[in-house]
Amino acid sequence: MAHEHDSGSTPVEGAQYDFAAIQSKWLPIWDELKPFATADPDDKRPRKYVLDMFPYPSGDLHMGHAEAYALGDVIARYWRQQGFNVLHPIGWDAFGLPAEGAAIKRNLDPRDWTYDNIAQQKASMRRYAPSFDWDRVIQTCDPDYYRWNQWLFLKLYEKGLAYRKASQVNWCPFDQTVLANEQVVNGRCERCDNLVTKKKLTQWYFRITDYADRLLDDLKQLEGAWPSKVLSMQRNWIGRSTGADVQFAIEGRDEAVTVYTTRPDTLYGVTFMVVAPDSDLAAELVEGARPEVRERFDEYLAAVRGTTEMDRLSTEREKTGVFLERHAINPLTGERIPIWAADYVLSDYGHGAIMAVPAHDQRDLDFARAFDLPVRVVVDTNQPVTGVIPVIPVDPETGEPTMPEDAPLENPSETGVALTGEGRLINSGPFDGLSKSNAIRRVTEALQGSGLGETAKNFRLRDWLISRQRYWGTPIPIIHCEKCGEVPVPESELPVLLPPAEGLDLKPKGTSPLGAAEDWVNVSCPTCGGPAKRDADTMDTFVDSSWYFLRFLSPKDDTQAFDPREAEKWAPVDQYVGGVTHAILHLLYSRFITKVLFDMGSISFTEPFTALLNQGMVLMEGSAMSKSRGNIVKLSEQLDEHGVDAVRLTMAFAGPPEDDIDWADVSPSGSAKFLARAWRVAHDVTSAPDVVWKNGDSALRRVTHRFLADAPGLIEAFKFNVVVARLMELVNATRKAIDTGAGPADAAVREAAEVTAMALNLFAPYTAEDMWEILGYEASVALAQWRKADPTLLIEESVTAVVQVDGKVRDRVEVSPKISGDELEVLARASEAVVRSVGDREIVNVIVRAPRLVNIATRPKG
Ligand code: ANZ
Ligand code: ZN
């Protein structure tokens, strides 16, 4: 691969590092070379799939993108240098509300707005030069992508995993749209600040709750390879809870009410029941009540509808509620307890009704204190329970065991603090004395025996609401027929194309704009041929991104969503890189769809992303960049001023990838200076590429090979900043060797410069490529294989330790400069010369000054 190197020429005098010239020189060459194409089926190298989360095309690339793609690219380029065939694709997550909103504001077709943005981002991305395989680009708003969303929907529909149901959703009457829980702030719409109400709407859902157990249990596979913070966020979001369903008979009602509890052991402490005011049960229970009660309840219900789930669950809020003047019967004690409606009980968790145990549940206690309801302690939390045998104190005088006086059990109704800890049951009839955990089991068994209860499990996770009443998304491939009901669009008729935006009013109004596209929406039923209408909703864009990593494997295949053989080769993703903002939903949805595809037999793995790296954010002067703060740093300006390489290197050098980078604290101009320095080193090398390494200056070679040996481990541990620091050391050492040491013709100088170019490829590809050429090689340095460190050069230099016996030098030993005193003493005593000169005298003292000196003092024996 080496060019003829003109070793006779003098180095270019004062050559200037001109990043702009270097960028415009290499970009077209790389375009031609396609060094990162992964299409060759005969490629025998082992494979790695490195994936960066794909961008949303809202405006040009920003500093956050610059960080993410710089860091992801270190990993992709690294594995290539380690001999892997690396798949590193990119695409655009192109459907969704922001594009639609921006287009409406500008009176544009969301299509035009989106594709223009993609074009702009793509141009910026190419210049930024991550090592992407540009032949695999996907854009989720292309019909040949979203038709496979529709295919996926139909598969889920077939399996009963996609369904439609009516439920209460957050509704902004002003914006006329459904809101996610996250978009409701203090009961008001995040965008317009109007009070949010609840509305019963029929929506499409994916039955992700069927997979709740697996989504939780399979997190074990990811331990150590995903940030533990993300794992626990996933766990909490799924929120598995185990306990029991318990039946309470209701006076004046035939059917019992089931409540879910995690603490069946506290059944003897139940003093009232609470139902969610917005549940069907509450409405039914209040029906026969006195008019005053009904009135009070209706008022209360109206207030509750304007309250967010977060507020309802808050322990800070004062408790509110209405007594329904109805009673329930405790299944174990037969006791009659009052039934209240209160908003701290949610209608869509468990059964929307609870048994209240104020002594042992803080929210119940707050409620009981607010409404003067009884509090009964049934678990003595002062009694030890765990397997440890309590140590019985002994009276120091008599030696007799003493029984400690029982610490008085604090009364929750006085302290206001519920007793939630471990303990033993009291006031609980036949269950007295049992530990909490035993009692949970025994009480549940007792209920089960009499048909009044059973073990139960609940999840915080809800089914995934995937329908949106908006234009810019994947049409849902369902046709509604008056006679046949829901009829799936036959697979052969996919894609259901999104109709043109022209003529449609895209403004949010609560129903999908697609409903007004007469020609599009009116169809004949695929089953009976009668008049029917297309479903006018579009899919949540999280559907698009839930499987995109598979589409990259056969992006142009128009016969299937992805090629299972390619998936067998490449998937799952070996390393996923992206922001922690996606720690929950995107990852959860991708994990869910992966499991569905596994169950369908399409893929052989159950987790999509084997390892995950979350990069931090780029801040400016301590805070996130935002228009309102006016602290936005424009990426394009940074690139113009410092060059692509300097910006990329700065991202890698700033600190551990997971940490935020404050752009005010870093120095892209410093990075540019370093790059110029490295680049000039290549210029100064005067030896030919075939120079014999081993003849080079050994001190510099040691620095080079130490770097070669250490960098891979550091990269794999994501310590990119340390590698950059070490690279700076290497460049400094090379500079010194050129200017004041071995000189520019020394083999070690060339070796160091070549290694610098290879390593810089990870962080600063343009500079690296240019150095590589200057050093006499053909592009691309990105394909040059990482050199193995020479082990003989890794042995540290030795120093000479002098060994004296009674003040006379008897031996000299070569030792490591880092040798410990003990080790050196052992070596000294083992020296033959020392043994001889000590003879049969007795050693009385040994003074060790590692690593230089050992002095042994002796005296005659006896
Ligand atoms: C009695 C009890 C006694 C409870 C006690 C807790 C402690 P997790 O862990 O989140 O599943 N609960 C049940 N359904 C509810 C609903 N729809 N809205 C609000 N709270 C509800 O919590 C389950 C516990 O939360 C259940 O156990 C129930 O209160 C309450 F010392 O029952 B427990
Ligand atoms: Zn029909």
From TrEMBL:
Catalytic activity of the protein: tRNA(Leu) + L-leucine + ATP = L-leucyl-tRNA(Leu) + AMP + diphosphate
Enzyme's top EC category: ligase
Compartments reported by the entry: Cytoplasm
Renumbered ranges of motif 'KMSKS' region: 624-628
Enzyme Commission numbers on file: 6.1.1.4
Primary site of residence: cytoplasm
The organism's place on the tree of life at top rank: Bacteria
Domain Methionyl/Valyl/Leucyl/Isoleucyl-tRNA synthetase anticodon-binding: 699-820
InterPro entries named among the record's database cross-references: aa-tRNA-synth_I_CS, aa-tRNA-synth_Ia, Leu-tRNA-ligase, Leu_tRNA-synth_edit, M/V/L/I-tRNA-synth_anticd-bd, Rossmann-like_a/b/a_fold, tRNAsynth_Ia_anticodon-bd, Val/Leu/Ile-tRNA-synth_edit
Residue span of region Disordered: 394-415
Span of domain Leucyl-tRNA synthetase editing: 235-382
Annotated motif 'HIGH' region, positions: 55-65
Family classification: Belongs to the class-I aminoacyl-tRNA synthetase family.
Listed name of the protein: Leucine--tRNA ligase
Higher taxonomy: Bacteria, Bacillati, Actinomycetota, Actinomycetes, Micrococcales
